[in-house]
């Protein structure tokens, strides 16, 4: 099992707008690729020095190839859409994890 995690820091003033967009557009778009088996979203419960709010969006996949395909084919337009919509109001980084049994 692979976990593709995106951690996003969003300005407090844009939090609700961003969260609505993530739930209505971003997550459904990612899941519609059929490359992931599910998702979770968490709010990070620590205060940042700059006043931003952080979220972790996690997508689960049975295949590393599916994650790679998502990153190469589907992620770029979604990243660009987020960048344009929330320009200068968010930062994001990605982490890919492999479950160890």
Short characterization:
The chain has about 100 residues and is α+β, with helices and mostly antiparallel strands. It is built from two helices and four strands.
Q: Care to describe what's here?
A:
The chain is α+β, with helices and mostly antiparallel strands and 101 residues long. The chain has a domain at 9-61 and 81-92. It is 39% helix and 33% strand. It is built from two helices and four strands. Strands 2-3-1-4 form a four-stranded antiparallel β-sheet, covered by helices on one side. The protein is globular and about 35 Å long. The model has no long low-confidence stretch (mean pLDDT 93).
User: Main β-sheet: number of strands, strand sense, barrel status?
Assistant: 4 strands, antiparallel
User: Total number of β-strand segments?
Assistant: 4
Q: Rg from C-alpha positions?
A: 14 Å
End-to-end gap: 10 Å
Name the helix and strand elements from N-terminus to C-terminus, one letter apiece: EHEEHE
Structural class: alpha+beta
Low-confidence stretches: none
Instruction: Assess the beta-strand content as a share of residues.
Output: 25-35%
What integer is the average pLDDT? 93
What percent of residues adopt helix (DSSP H or I)? 25-40%
Can you tell me the overall shape? globular
Strand order of the largest sheet: 2-3-1-4
Helical stretch count?
A: 2
Q: Topology, pairings included?
A:
Layout: E1 2-10, H1 15-31, E2 38-43, E3 53-61, H2 64-85, E4 90-98
Antiparallel strand pairs: 1-3, 1-4, 2-3
